[in-house]
Amino acid sequence: MMNTALPEMLHCLQTPENLAGNGADLTVLERQRAQLKWLQQQQQQYQQIYFSESQFNVFLPPTTDALQLQDLINNDTTLQKLVNRSMKADSGLANEWPDFGKYSTTSTGFAGQATSFASNGLEPNSLAMGHCLSRTSSCPPAMTLPDGEGRDSVFIASVVERERMKKRKADEAQNPMVTVSEDIRDKRVKVDAEEMESKITEQNTSATISDTPPTTTTHNSNKNDNANNNNNREASSDTSKENPKAPQVPKPDYIHVRARRGQATDSHSLAERVRREKISDRMKYLQNLVPGCNKITGKAGMLDEIINYVQSLQRQVEFLSMKLAAVNPRIDFSVDNLFRKESAQTFPAPDCTGNFSTAGLSSEMANPAYLQFNPVHQVVSLDNPQEMALRRTFSAPMAVPADTFNETASFTQVPHSCSTWENDLQGLYNMGFHQQGRSSAGFPPHAFPGMPEANNLKMEM
Amino acid sequence: MASPSSFKQELLKKWVLGLQSCCSMAKDMGISERKKAIKLSADLAMASARDGRTCWSRAVIANASKQNESKILVQKILGSECERLVKASSIGFSSCNKRFTSKRILRRSCSSLRRIRRSAPKRVQASSIAKRMVKKRTQLLKGLVPGGESMDEFSLIEETLDYIISLRAQIDVMRCLADASERLKSQ
């Protein structure tokens, strides 16, 4: 899992994000007014505490075909990824790109902010669907206008202010749901939820999609994103995204990041902002990985903690190798014995371990007569490892006190081929991981025919 | 790798192979030599179990293959894909080094410029202090993660993530073995 799934692990912490969509047909004047209002609203929202919430305002001009936009977005996978990524970076929770095609162009008036917290962000073919909980919408049902797939609800409202008030209420009603939303995969989400309780920072991301030259209109999609994670605070909280130009342009897969007011707009600082966001995203994961790092704010303190942790891990490795070197006079320290020992320890049955400890693994006392069975052992070891692991139990009656441990001696005589090693390891792990619950009582005593003195504790390879 | 346990399994397998080859190379060793050999083989096993896919594991392999005495060990542990990995890691590492030196030159020139500029307004801002603190710690972290000198900040953090997880697995495996051998010894 670690190998391949590390990036996935980094990304799999997805919870459905509240996405509220706006689809609207507006004249330029209306749009400007709405944006003004939106900005005012913004100021108020800063003082309020929201949970993971992101508004998505899409203003569609009446002349534009919405499908164009949808095609543009759907074709543009890198764009989607990037937007998703930045959303994750903002909030620590995953977003799905809202389906733009669901916003109908025929919607009249101001299709106000959708207050639905339903999973309208899901893509139809998204694999993450299984992971994401479909949110119930917490707004008045009369307001909902679900579309064909029911994934996307568009709310049509004339008054923006009222809409926003409702949204706020709905948001507050939503909050407990967010905290209890069960995510099977990761406890990280819980951590996030806890973090939400303590420190909630608001982030504002507005995405601007500049539109097609032929129609010479602009789609503004403003996404108001509240971040829950504290280490995002230091990062610049406002970013803007701009969709590529015309859908007719053959190569629309690059992304403009646009600065909001008061921010630097040159390309360097924009790139820097994106980079910083990426870094803070990763820092968040590190924060969850390193124990005791959750409570620390500030990058320097977090780095301190990470450094300490890595150092302690490295010191632990040093210490353990020292210990191994001290304990074992020889460097290979007859790893076979260790495996036997370890596999013995994995057995829960007390008498087994007891017998093993009394056996003492005294390989010196081994009867040389057992050596003739080495071929047999080897043959057995080439079996199905699972089966082998099952059979790797005591093959002698338990009642007899074990005084010699033959098998160890016999095994050390076996020339170590690679296959036996693999089998051995396999067996060890099978025992370790699959046989925890089993006791050796289920396995019948197994006597070798040529061994009258086989009353000893014996393991079969 | 599919799961942490399979990673550990791989690690253990490779480590045991390395230990055996260590043993076959040198019969009698002092405790410090033994410790060094054990640590080296464990690190190499960790890196090779990571399959050279990450920067730090490549750096570990490259560092080990540079030294003569550990070269054989590298070959033993890596086995069949040894050549590929060593080549890839050394290439990647050397290019990283080159980039690093050029970066250092750049930094040096930048810092001299900055020194001149900074001397003019004689006030120290809090943000600059914080920035310096972060930079210092980043340098420290770069020293800790193998091959970290050549990474930029973003990849450094990613590699640190990976490195921490791998270190944890390595410690688990080593502790398992240490416990077992200790118990074996006590009897």
TrEMBL record, chain A:
Any one annotated GO CC term: nucleus
For this UniProt record, give its keywords in alphabetical order, as a comma-separated list.
Answer: Nucleus, Transcription, Transcription regulation
GO terms (molecular function) for this protein are: DNA-binding transcription factor activity; protein dimerization activity
Predominant place of localization: nucleus
Q: Name one Pfam family in it.
A: HLH
**Low complexity compositional bias: what residue ranges?**
205-232
Domain BHLH, by residue range, is 263-313
Which InterPro entries does the UniProt entry name for this protein? Answer: bHLH_dom, bHLH_ZIP_TF, HLH_DNA-bd_sf
Biased-composition ranges, Basic and acidic residues, are 184-200, 235-244
PROSITE patterns per UniProt: BHLH
In this chain, the stretch annotated as Disordered covers 184-254, 440-461
**Would the keyword Nucleus turn up in this protein's UniProt record?**
yes
Q: Which domain of life is it from?
A: Eukaryota
* Keyword Transcription regulation part of the UniProt annotation: yes
Q: Which Gene3D superfamilies match?
A: Helix-loop-helix DNA-binding domain (4.10.280.10)
Location of this chain's protein in the cell? Nucleus
Q: What is this protein called?
A: Transcription factor HBI1-like isoform X1
Per the UniProt record, the source organism is: Nelumbo nucifera
Highest classification ranks of the organism: Eukaryota, Viridiplantae, Streptophyta, Embryophyta, Tracheophyta
Which gene name does the record give?
A: LOC104595664
TrEMBL record, chain B:
Q: What InterPro entries does its record include?
A: IBH1-like (IPR044660), IBH1_N (IPR059002)
Q: Where is the IBH1-like N-terminal domain?
A: 5-67
- Name of a matching Pfam family: IBH1_N
Which keywords has UniProt assigned to this entry?
Transcription, Transcription regulation
Give the top-rank taxon of the lineage listed in the UniProt record for this protein.
Eukaryota
What is one process in the GO biological process aspect for this record? regulation of DNA-templated transcription
The entry's protein name is IBH1-like N-terminal domain-containing protein
Q: Which organism is it from?
A: Nelumbo nucifera
